[in-house]
Amino acid sequence: MELTSLKFKEQSSAAIANADLQRALGNVEKGFIDKRRKSTDALPEFDRLRDNARDIKNHTLAHLDHYLEAYEEKVTQSGGHVHWAATAAEAREAVLAICQQRKAKTVTKGKSMITEEIGLNDFLSANDITPVETDLGEYIIQLRGEHPSHIIAPAVHVNRDQVESDFRRVHTQFEAERDLTEPVSLLAEAREVLRQKYFEADIGITGANFLVAETGSSVIVTNEGNGDLTQTLGKVHIVVASIEKVVPTLEDTAQILRVLARSATGQDMSVYTTVSTGPKRADDPDGPEEYHVVLVDNGRSDMLGTEYQEMLRCIRCGACMNHCPVYHAVGGHAYGSVYPGPMGAVLTPSLHGIDKSGHLPNASTFCGRCEEVCPMRIPLPKMMRHWREQEFEKHLQPSKARFGLGIWAYVARRPKLYRRAVSLAMPVLSRLGGARHRIARLPLAGGWTRHRDLPAPEGATFMQQWAERQRHDKGSKA
Amino acid sequence: MSGRDAILSKIRASLGAGGDEAARKTAVAERLAGHPRGVIPERGHLPAAERLALFRDMAIKANASVATLAGYDALPDAVLTYLRERNLPASVRMGTDPRLAEAPWHEAATLEVKSGASDGEDVTGVSHALGAVAETGTLALTSGTDNPTTVNFLPEHHLVVVDAKDVTGDLESLWSALRTSRGDGSMPRTVNLVTGPSRSGDIEQVLLMGAHGPRSVHILVIDPEGTMPAERTP
């Protein structure tokens, strides 16, 4: 997709004004937060598992070259093929070459964020290969010509009635009078349409939640079973996965699985966790004849050894966006990048450069909920702050903002001057607030007061109150 | 330079590798060979009877249903009962698993048993699981002629047989059992860990059963020793 993160402000204003979107976004808070809390509360070892999950990924990243080599060896041993792609373009070409060799016309796809990142669908379509998304949410947004607005609930921005009208528009093979008022009838219709696609497809493409170095396996985690039908019924299975998906062993996978499903959907375990190793064996009655893995770097090796390395622990559970007040307000599309929310605000500048995505690390109140819920303990606010610093250092902000920040920095570093300025400003602001103690308009603060009142300060400053209390305490002790 | 070399050399440069390479290699080899188990939740550490009861409770929590059978002799009748109660056609699809094959299917004269992979037309499939995990109510199914993977996903109803003795406390123990069962460090083409029936919450986050896989998963625990405690009546 085209990166439009530079228009974050315009896009988020439009998102806030979009009543349909706001209705749909209500489901994020309702749907995810309580479920996660219940399932994590029910597992006393959850925090220790998070620590271990973090340690497993840290160890793996520190030895990534060796684990990738070990993984490749095992894939080859089991009859599969590994294709290394340094860039998105190389990854697309690798997939296309396999498709063309098999003269593929249709490919089914399991849900995969990396194929969004490399823009695979548009590329395949341009080469006369039809990609069919099979995850219900991905299928819905493919019909709508949209991109996912959430990494695990791609159609979370769409309401039921919108799905109904999309299905009526596209599924013209069914009677026009059919009843689609219930979500279950929408699901049944999608199931029927897609069931046929699995059988027609030449190739199935999935992502991977894990690549297991010990066994050369790829692991996918789904609730629908669409990824499984995609990779079982196609004659060829192509796994597209980024290099940081590798974990050492099956046991390590089991550890991370415990924090993945709980953080994502509040399940103890997703419905289907599938470990795939190589193509169909001699005596297998089903399964793909060929098994390919396209290993994608696309900027990740540059993150190693930097302050953003920890981001490579991310397992794409979506908990950070599910708990983000900014995401709740504007949804995923406003971010203008493949990865929205706090993890996107850190990852997008890493992949595309801070000059193209400077608004994203600023799209945070730094409330810290994302870090609190991150199963891999990724310090997301700290990393967003690093990006803000780089943005400042690279002179990427508008001169007005830089000027304001410059003044602020000058004053903030001089406590006496700061206190004096504050104690002078307080009575003025207090008077401006009037009887309501709210300020509706303030010079230089239009960005704030255009949307809400500024609460006027009342009484003394913190330092004044503190000094007063100290005096009082001393007095009472004496 | 190939993509492979480009990626690996960039990783090495970024990590500042090149110092003690022998130590890094050893660390990797040791972890792969030793596969440490990490943090295992207490929940699954139970004597056999409680472990089976936990498996049943967790499978039911994941919207599966569970019945206990004294032996494989009772299997054909249990399958027929399941089909009859739901008004389903008296026909099932299954692989060539010897444990399933030994059940007296001829006693269920009205039941059609189709062998081999599913072609998508089957309403009900029967599989034998390698084992199960009590901690999460998860079944482990392995691919092959014994239990074709398509049987796990294409039929609307999936009946899964598992031996009581193969229900482990945690997933790590199941991996150990898998390694022992194959012995050579190889993996079956596919291991499906299945926890309840297929579902989707993609329309307004409302959970619906039967997205692409089975709408219903029914587990038949073969328990000749009578280890499974009686179900608590609510």
Automatic annotation (TrEMBL), chain A:
This is Iron-sulfur cluster-binding protein. GO terms for molecular function: 4 iron, 4 sulfur cluster binding; metal ion binding. Keywords: 4Fe-4S, Electron transport, Iron, Iron-sulfur, Metal-binding, Repeat, Transport. It comes from Pararhizobium mangrovi. InterPro entries: 4Fe4S_Fe-S-bd, 4Fe4S_Fe_S_CS, FTHF_cligase-like_sf, Helical_ferredxn, LUD_dom, LutB/LldF, NagB/RpiA_transferase-like. One of its GO terms (biological process) is lactate metabolic process. PROSITE patterns: 4FE4S_FER_1 (PS00198), 4FE4S_FER_2 (PS51379). Pfam families: Fer4_8, LUD_dom. Residues 305-335 form the 4Fe-4S ferredoxin-type domain.
TrEMBL record, chain B:
InterPro entries: FTHF_cligase-like_sf (IPR024185), LUD_dom (IPR003741), NagB/RpiA_transferase-like (IPR037171). Residues 124-222 form the LUD domain. Signal peptide: none annotated. This is Lactate utilization protein.
